[in-house]
Write a structure and sequence with these properties.
17 strands, 5 helices
Length: about 250
């Protein structure tokens, strides 16, 4: 049995490791951004050099278009560098309950930090674009055909399954983790086919939404919620709005 002294020593070591990991993730973000910016800046300065013999207005015009086009070069490279970093550092997440200082939790932090970086630096301004679904698939998400995602609020992608012809509205938070008094719970979430999720809804881990269901704006699904196929659902917590309307109609 672990003594109080050993337990305190282990707690201090885990706390120190956690803080060092935070600094490492900052350095990783600098490295990922630096590598992604290199081809954009190379293109940018190449265009500027070639335009050197032209009048100033032409150089400024070429500079403007090269910056705009270069942003897409940066974003495309960023997507693949983030995926490469996940593979290189073996960032994996799996369902379970983990302490905040555990190795599994640190892995989860590294994995989601790269998702956050790609979303913040590039994908958040390109919602509903092929770049977004491409990145999500490369990060392990199972996404069907004809899916439209109008939010950057997706996390824990490798535990997320989205069926065909799903519409996810703006500001939706679709996550597979929850904090529980010093622990992190990870659990997969499944969205069926032909599902519509309204603006600003929040879907917690271990939820399932059946085929053809429609979720009204600003709905909240607590962890473990199972919504059957079809129907219109909404509210906080979520409930069957059709039954509610029928009840009110009778009254």
């Amino acid at each position: 049995m672990e003594t109080k002294e050993k337990k305190a020593k282990r707690s201090r070591w885990e706390a120190a490791r956690f803080n060092l990991w935070i600094w490492f993730l900052h350095l990783l973000a600098v490295g990922v951004l630096g590598l992604s910016l290199f081809p954009m800046l190379f293109f940018f300065f190449g265009i500027w050099k070639m335009a050197g013999i032209h009048p100033l207005w032409m150089r400024v015009l070429s500079l403007s278009f090269s910056v705009a086009f270069g942003y897409f070069i940066f974003g495309t490279v960023l997507i693949f560098v983030c995926v490469l970093a996940v593979k290189l550092f073996n960032f994996k997440i799996a369902p379970g309950l983990y302490t905040i200082h555990s190795t599994a939790c640190l892995q989860w932090m590294g994995y989601n930090s790269l998702i956050l970086l790609a979303n913040s630096a590039f994908l958040d301004v390109l919602r509903l674009s092929p770049f977004q679904t491409l990145f999500y698939r490369l990060m392990g998400a199972k996404i069907g055909k004809g899916v439209n995602v109008n939010t950057a609020g997706l996390a824990d992608l490798s535990m997320l399954e989205i069926g065909d012809h799903v519409l996810i509205g703006g500001g939706v938070a679709l996550i597979c983790h929850a904090s529980e008094r010093g622990f992190i719970r990870l659990a997969p979430t499944r969205i069926g086919n032909n599902v519509s999720i309204g603006l600003g809804s929040v879907i917690m881990p271990d939820c399932e939404i059946g085929d053809g269901a429609s979720l009204s704006p600003c709905s909240y699904l607590p962890k473990g919620t199972k919504i059957p196929p079809k129907g219109v659902w909404g509210g906080n917590p979520v409930r069957d709005l059709r039954i509610e309307r029928r009840t009110l109609a009778v009254l």
